[in-house]
# Entry
Amino acid sequence: MKKKRIIIAGIIVLVAAIAILIGMRFLGSRSMGIDNDPEAEVKGDSNVLVAYFSWSGNGQQMANWISEETGGELFRIVPSESYGEDFDSCADRAKNELDNEIRPELSEHIDAETMAQYDVIYLGFPVWWYDLPMPVWTFLEEYDLSGKTVIPFFSHNGSSNGANSVKRVTELADGATVLTENALSLRGSDVSGSEQEVKDWVKDIGR
Ligand SMILES: Cc1cc2nc3c(=O)[nH]c(=O)nc-3n(C[C@H](O)[C@H](O)[C@H](O)COP(=O)(O)O)c2cc1C
# Structure
């Protein structure tokens, strides 16, 4: 009986993993919805920063709505070497970086004085290989985040609880309080119709 349950659980895990991999492949054949040249400048005029990494645009869309609702300043986490538009090469590079804990260099930075103005950081990312994309590792390790509140928001294609990504944020955001219980999770294909949900989430958090 126990053996049967283990086999059934194994099949469920396998089917879920295959569904996510198929979802990732589907994403590869989709056109990119990202604005590669967003108009945004961090000045430290607000105490809220909305920092995000996004490859195909979902996280960028969520970040824009969060910024509209909070008045927070937008900052796009940009790797110096682009992941390109080809899904397979992006996926291979992302896997290699994660397996080897390679932190890619970033091309955009916030100076320490400006970063010191922010009390709250909304942090956006896609789930990549069941974890946090490596450019976000680089971002979190670059700054002194002590005393700040970090609020994660992410999109996914099946890993609705974020897999290991939110836990990873807590490990890397040294000295910050990470609101793990409040993290916003949206399926990538649902993002475009979720403006109200995103804005209501911000209101509920009240920051
Ligand atoms: C390299 C790569 C790895 C991914 N790994 C996962 C994963 O492990 N679990 C999952 O649910 N979705 C995975 N996805 C799907 C993305 O999380 C999802 O499409 C997300 O909405 C993309 O956000 P973006 O448009 O902001 O880049 C992956 C996508 C890519 C490109």
